User: What shape does this take?
Amino acid sequence: MKKETPLDFPVDDLISQRWSSRAFDPSFFLDEKAMCSLFEAARWAPSCYGDQPWKFIAYNKQDATAWARILNCLSVGNQNWAMDASLLIVVCANTKFNHNGEPNRFGQYDTGAAAENLCLQATSMGLSAHQMGGFNSEKTRELAKVPKDFDIMACIAVGRALNEEDLSVEQKEKESVQRKRKPINEIYSINEWK
Assistant: This one.
């Protein structure tokens, strides 16, 4: 399913076509080559000092045991739709610089850039990626063995969006809601905060 993006100004198609589906094709499985392409895109995101403070932990639906464990870390509302995705990814940000061990106040910002690269790569591959904050952080940390120096930022569900004709009535209702964003004049100003 494609979703229209109501633009006020032109942007690249890759950006306008990216959206966060909640209806995935449960029969689709992501192969290793495609999965590596997602992480290759993330690898080339910009970061302070080129430090790459991110770490992604992938759970492929083909490993049913690990998949069920990470799915159980999500909120019930997210479990209801994420269970049909092909891949679940835990996104982590190092709180310290790799090169000197000092606090890295840019780690979360840089990790967000890497996550967006991953999402845009998914879009370019005809996939959908949905970032979510509804998960149990401590349960996820324990399951994924995330070190304490890393913040768990998000989970991302990746898969192939369900074809429109295969959507249930409830899914169609949710997926067809028009995309909304703040007006452009509310997100930037020139020379000072306005």
About this structure: The chain has a mean pLDDT of 94. DSSP finds seven helices and four strands in the chain. The chain has one domain: 27-177. The radius of gyration is 18 Å.
